[in-house]
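User: Please fill in residues for this 385-position structure.
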């Protein structure tokens, strides 16, 4: 594979960078965190006008028909600006799953709206203790005539209050693997939503309660009781996208730390001349380049469905998550006491990094997944503890 952006991808990167700068760059997550939710509406409209909502939607439904590699430069730029919103869940998770597993009616209903920016998706995965496994999915879907009636609750649902539609894994049988995926439209369902405390204020987390919520059987994604396998497919795309997004954050951290080290003076010289500071920045840069290589390869492996795709994504997710947290922490150390203040941008990256630390599994979980792939013991992408 080519470890560099091609001409088309470079165009996407420049366009995304210019667009986000025009919208305020790092002021976007700051304003959203302060309660100015209209900035997210404005951002979504702009991304739709650029055609970015339809990147992974086929041309027959108004999209561009491209794959994970095309998303890489867009997601990196979004990571550099710590952008809020369910873009990743919509474009890297929902769109590919509906394209691959959706019925003709579901594709007709959702994909064109998704590509135009008129339909926002997120995924409601976690319950109870926050671990994702078949045994921890207990939102019960009871069949009644031509409907499923849902009871239970999902926690830590990213931007559920902003999304139009949720993809929800539910229990449809008594066996451990009897999991199905339902597409739940928020406007036609009596959902109860409650904001939850989140370390990263730019990633709003919502608890969604289902109290006898009726969902037509036509909203079943794929076949009944096959939802866990389908979900693993979607999580591969979700993790690959978040890896590229975190690489963008790493890149911006290196830029911020380097600029500060070259301009902040102590004892009559820039602090970047001090060994302790230089070493931290070098480590950040090395982490960045390693992370970028792994993220590019994971996206390439996913797009080309290589034999080592699960291993590639797991390696990328484990290393990049830890590198992002370490570099974000070191960046605050480089800035000293001022690095902890609201006025500096350092905290935005550390909060985002920590909020993703155990999302969809911890770095340790993914290292165990790599081991399983290497020894030939195929397990699901999300490990059960």
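Assistant: Residues filled in for all 385 positions:
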């Amino acid at each position: 594979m080519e470890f560099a952006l091609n001409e088309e991808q470079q165009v996407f990167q420049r366009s995304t960078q210019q667009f986000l700068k025009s919208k305020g760059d790092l002021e976007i997550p700051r304003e959203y965190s302060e309660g100015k939710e209209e900035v997210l509406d404005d951002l979504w409209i702009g991304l739709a006008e650029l055609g970015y909502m339809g990147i992974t939607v086929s041309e027959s439904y108004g999209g561009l028909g491209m794959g994970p590699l095309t998303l890489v430069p867009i997601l990196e730029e979004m990571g550099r600006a710590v952008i809020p919103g369910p873009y990743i869940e919509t474009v890297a998770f929902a769109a590919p799953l509906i394209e691959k597993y959706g019925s003709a009616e579901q594709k007709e209903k959702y994909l064109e709206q998704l590509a135009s920016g008129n339909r926002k998706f997120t995924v409601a995965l976690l319950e109870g203790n926050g671990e994702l496994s078949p045994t921890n999915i207990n939102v019960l879907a009871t069949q009644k005539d031509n409907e499923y009636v849902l009871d239970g609750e999902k926690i830590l649902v990213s931007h559920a209050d902003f999304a139009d539609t949720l993809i929800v894994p539910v229990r449809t049988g008594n066996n451990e693997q009897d999991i199905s995926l339902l597409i739940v439209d928020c406007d036609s369902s009596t959902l109860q939503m409650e904001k939850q405390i989140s370390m990263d204020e730019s990633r709003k987390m919502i608890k969604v309660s289902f109290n006898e919520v009726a969902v037509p059987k036509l909203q079943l994604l794929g076949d009944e009781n096959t939802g866990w396998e389908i979900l693993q497919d979607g999580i591969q795309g979700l993790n690959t996208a978040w890896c590229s997004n975190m690489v963008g954050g790493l890149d911006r951290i290196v830029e911020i730390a380097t600029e500060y080290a070259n301009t902040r003076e102590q004892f009559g010289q820039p602090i970047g001349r001090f060994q302790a500071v230089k070493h931290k920045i070098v480590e950040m840069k090395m982490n960045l380049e390693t992370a970028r290589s792994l993220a590019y390869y994971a996206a390439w492996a996913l797009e080309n469905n290589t034999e080592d795709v699960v291993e590639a994504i797991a390696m990328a997710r484990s290393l990049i998550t830890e590198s992002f947290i370490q570099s974000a922490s070191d960046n605050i150390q480089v800035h000293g006491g001022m690095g902890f203040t609201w006025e500096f941008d350092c905290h935005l990256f550390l909060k985002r990094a920590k909020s993703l630390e155990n999302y969809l599994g911890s770095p340790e979980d993914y290292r165990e997944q790599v081991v399983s792939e290497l020894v030939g013991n195929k397990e699901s992408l999300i490990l059960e503890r």
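For context: The chain has eleven helices and ten strands.
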